Structure formats: structure tokens, C-alpha cells
């Protein structure tokens, strides 16, 4: 689809990279698909830039959540899902 190609090219320029991560391409495609449902389209560099900021913020938050989960698991003595579970509040 030519417009999605433009969206990807715009994102490449904004980020200054040669290739977009697959999850970012999918994210931009999902936004375009949803806009298309109401006969719209991403046709603005500002919208692509905003989508990238949102994507990067979400990626960082997910990274922090994973780190916090590892810390919680470590504090609880978990090595797997519910394996070795102890309530650290009462130990």
C-alpha cells in the first residue's frame, strides 16, 4: 500500500535509521488501518512523529514493568510462575 510505504519512510527519516523494528511498522500500520476504517489516513508528519513518541514511551514503560516484575519475583523467591511462591510481606 503506497501510503503505508510513506508512513514507514517518514518514520525512517524522523528516527534517522535504515530499518524500522517490526513492532513499530506494525504499530504504524495499525494506526493507518484504524484511520482507514473511517475513510481517513495518516497523511501528516506530525501524526507519525506523535505515534513514534507514543511507541517509544510504551516500549520504555514495558521494559520498566518487566524489570520490576523480575525484582518482585526475586524478592518473592520465584523462579517461575507460582513456583516457590512465598508472601514476602509475612516472611
Report on this model:
The protein is 67% helix and 0% strand. The longest helix has 32 residues, at 45-76. It has helices at residues 2-15, 22-36, 45-76. With 91 residues, it is mostly helical. The protein has one domain (2-75).
Concise description?
This protein is mainly α and 91 residues long. The protein has helices at 2-15, 22-36, 45-76.
Low-confidence stretches: none
Distance, first to last CA: 58 Å
Helix/strand structural class: mainly alpha
The portion of residues assigned to helices is 55-70%
Number of helices: 3
Shape: elongated
Oligomer: single chain
Overall radius of gyration: 20 Å
Domain count, please report it: 1
Mean pLDDT rating: 84
Largest sheet: none
Order of helices and strands: HHH
Residue fraction in strands: under 5%
SS elements, strand count: 0
Identify the notable features of this structure and list them briefly.
elongated; 3 helices; 91 residues; mainly alpha
Topology (elements, then pairings):
Layout: H1 2-15, H2 22-36, H3 45-76
Amino acid at each position: 500500500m503506497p501510503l503505508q510505504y510513506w508512513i514507514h519512510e517518514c518514520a525512517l527519516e524522523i528516527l534517522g535509521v535504515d530499518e524500522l523494528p517490526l513492532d513499530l511498522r506494525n504499530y504504524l500500520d495499525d494506526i493507518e488501518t484504524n484511520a482507514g476504517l473511517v475513510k481517513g489516513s495518516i497523511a501528516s508528519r506530525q501524526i507519525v512523529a506523535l505515534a513514534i513518541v507514543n511507541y517509544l514511551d510504551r516500549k520504555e514503560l514495558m521494559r520498566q514493568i518487566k524489570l520490576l516484575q523480575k525484582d518482585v519475583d526475586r524478592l518473592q523467591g520465584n523462579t517461575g510462575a507460582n513456583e516457590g511462591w512465598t508472601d514476602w510481606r509475612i516472611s
